Amino acid sequence: MSFSITGKTAIVTGAAHGIGRAIARHFVDRGANVMCADVDEEALDDELGEEARADGPLRIFGGDLREKLTVTNLIAATIDAFDRVDILVNASRAIALSDPLGQGDDAMEEMLQHNLLTSLRLSQQVARRMIAQAAREGEGGGSGQAGAIVNISSIAARRTQPELLAYSVSCAALDQMTRSLAVALAPRRIRVNAVAFGSVMSASLQARLKEKGEMRAEILGHTPMGRIAAPSELAEAVQFLASDAAGFLTGQIVTVDGGRTLIDPACAPAH
User: Fold this and answer.
1) Directed axis angle between helix 118-136 and helix 165-185, to 10°?
2) Which among 266, 156, 149 has a CA at the least distance from the CA of 200?
3) Distance, CA of 116 to CA of 129 (rounded, Å)
C-alpha cells in the first residue's frame, strides 16, 4: 500500500490558520488538489489567495460552514475546480472557556455547533458525493476505497479540565461521530478516522501561550517527549489516514500527543 495522495482531491476546512493551513499546504506539497475552506475569508485570502489565483492545485473558499447552503456551495466549488472529491479533512475547530456551573452560558451550544454538527453535515454531503463517484466509475465491491474522511479531534475528549467542559464534550461527541460514521459508511468503502492531538503549536495555543507564558513549562512537564508538536507532524498523521496505506483502518481515533495521555499527572516527568 502507498502513502501517496498524489492526484487526489481534498477539502480541508479551517485552512486559514494553524493546523488546518499546515494540513492544506502539506497535501499540496504531496501532490494533492486541495480546496481550502474557512469562515475567516480575509485571513484565507492573505495566506493562500495568491496561490489560489495561480489556477494550480490549491483553491480557496470562504464562508460559514454552519450554514447548510454554504456546505453545498463548498462541494460544488470543489467539483467545479477539480471534478471530484476523494478526501475530507474536518480541521475547523473552536475552543471556548466556560463556567461549568454557569447558567445561560451558550458555550456548549456554540462548541457542538462548530466542532460537531458542522463536521457532520459536511461529512454527510461529501460522503454522498463519494458514493455517487464510485457508482459512476463502476468500482463495484472491490477492495479499493471510495473516499476517506479525517476529523481533527483532541485529547480533551478524554481529559478533564472543568473550564473546557463545552470543548471537551464536543470533542468526545466528534470521536463518537467518527466511529458511527465509520460503521455506516464502511459498506460504501468510505473510511472515517480521527486524529486526536495533544499540544500542537496551533494558532489557538500560540495565543494562549502569549497570555499565559507559564503554560509552556506546564505542558512540557506533562508531556513525556518534552516538547510541543509542530502542525506538520499532525499533517503527516492525517496524510497516512487519508492514503491507501490505511486502507483497512476505520473508526479509529489516532492519538498524536507525545505520550501525554499515558501518564498520571501526579507522576509527570520533569523537563
Assistant:
1) 20
2) 156
3) 20
Which domains, and CATH codes, for the chain? 9-199+230-257 (3.40.50.720)
**From 27, 61, 82, 167, the catalytic residue:** 167
**Residue 53 CB contacts under 8 Å (≥ 6 apart), including other chains:** none
- What is the DSSP pairing of strand 58-62 with strand 9-13? unpaired
Residue with cell 498523521: 237
Radius of gyration over alpha carbons of the chain, in Å? 18
Question: Cα-flanking dihedrals φ and ψ of residue 36, to 5°?
Answer: -95, 120
Q: Which amino acid is at 192?
A: V
The greatest distance separating any two alpha carbons of the chain, rounded to the nearest whole angstrom, comes to 57
pLDDT, tens only, 35-63: 999 999 999 999 999 999 998 999 999 99
The answer to whether 209 is a known catalytic residue is no
Q: 7-16, 95-104, 182-191 — which is least confidently predicted?
A: 95-104
Query: C-alpha cell of 269?
Result: 516527568
DSSP 37-87: EES-HHHHHHHHHHHHTTTSSEEEEES-TTSHHHHHHHHHHHHHHHS---E
